[in-house]
Write the structure tokens for this entry.
Amino acid sequence: MWSGKRPTGYVYLAALGLAISACAPSAAPREAGGSSRQPQATAAPKILTFAVPRELDTWNTDITLVTRGGGTSSIQYVGHSKLTVQNDDALSYVPQLATEMPSIDNGTWRVNPNGSMDVEWRIWPNAKWHDGMPMTSDDLLFTFEVIHDPEIPNVIGQPLRLMESAAAPDPRTFVVHWNRPYIDVPQASGLTVMPRHILEQSFRQDKAGFPNHPWMSREFVGLGPYRMVRWEAGAFMEFTRFDDYYKGRPAFDSVIVQFIKDENAIIAAVLSGAVDVVPPVGLDVETVFEVKERFEASGNHVAGTLTGGFFIVEMQHRPEFARPRLGLTNRDVRQALYQAINRPQITEVMSQGLGFVADSWFFPGHPDRASVEAAIPQYPYDLSRSAQLLAGAGWIRGSDGVLVNQETGERFDVQVSPTRDYARMGQIISDFWRRAGAQVEERAVAADRAQDLEQIAAAPGAWFTNPRYYQMAQDRYHTRSIPTTATRWTGRNRGGYANPRGDDIMDRLVATIPTAERLPFHRQLIQEMLGDIAFMPLFWEYDPYLFAKGMKGINGGLWNVDTWDRE
């Protein structure tokens, strides 16, 4: 597991210290003038500093079609609150802005005789925006109106279509009427609350410009434990304690978020003491393990968590976009390329042996895994079987070893399009497929084209992503989620996978609330989707995180940053 190499991050120590002192706000301003008067002894400000490799794009990812990963979602927990947040076990949601989770037992989650559903959210009574204005259910009602407006783009998907109407019977109660039952109510999809008093005028007068309103970025006013006071593009964000935070006064006077693009520089900052916490942000596991011994020798901590996400290969299913035309659009070809991937090997390489091979969206330890395991089709690494399947689909190696279609004469030239985060994975998968006879072009997605939704949806080959396990039984691969010109190329079903039987199973699954009654639908969906190899599961994501000696209350993500403290 240990490579024994000296981490390259050490070369950044001196330079990084200078960079941080130059760009970050001073912890304690100097007294003006040259007086020789001795200053009174005061307690030093209590400052929390953490680092992420990417800068935040937007404070509301529901309506702005931007996401970069790299820990950016963690920043949102510092400055804002959601009705619910995902717990550290990656299996459940817990209330945050809501005082409790809706439930059938307490009468706040009701399935009506006509098949519709009502969900009642109760809000903390003393919640305030950072400008001092009370947060009320009227803000949620405004949010509901915004996300349902056809002129405002969003990435919410199926929940939006099922949430039919909403009401605010009193300032602390918000009720959503659904036209049919839906199991994933605890996620509160599409209800990232927005302040009516700040945004309503822009929404009414300039819908085209609304997603780019300054509130979404530099002029953000939130509900979180810390209030944003400064944002230096490309350098850092500064937050100060919000004393009126509805769950009580947080521990730190201020929070500094450093944007450090190079992961070696992040490691160096932690080793030098310039950074207190690095949340799970996709740091290379090997790099972290190289410094683990030195870091922990000083009383600091290296931990890790299974995030509930898993890496998969997605591919283009639409013949009008796919290349080669009779390649990944063919089910047997997909199985051949899947069985050409040595998943135990890639899991070992990418997670230093800490991750788990994925064969479905039910990870090891999931409470329902045993109930569905027998339904999961298995595709072990087998190059002989891969060659048989390719030959049966008409693909035979030519004189140069590259597969050629015997019907059309087309060579198996396939494009693999990893983003920067997945470049290493792209190289490994490409090598596996070359051994199977494919001619692979690795074409990384350029940073300036990463938000070109039409280009992304029309990618001709394969790419990698890491969805959460619970998304797979929603509408990620539903026909209605296929990006088109009509949807302005939004939609999770990027590869255009279409399966009417799968659509029907997904529709019935999300409408079945009792867990035990859902399991037969999960088994059917596994057999339908993975039997057809709609996507290729690779391995479960394992994210390391680092925190300094004396930090308390950290369990992984930043969702509970309001409870953190330092001894």
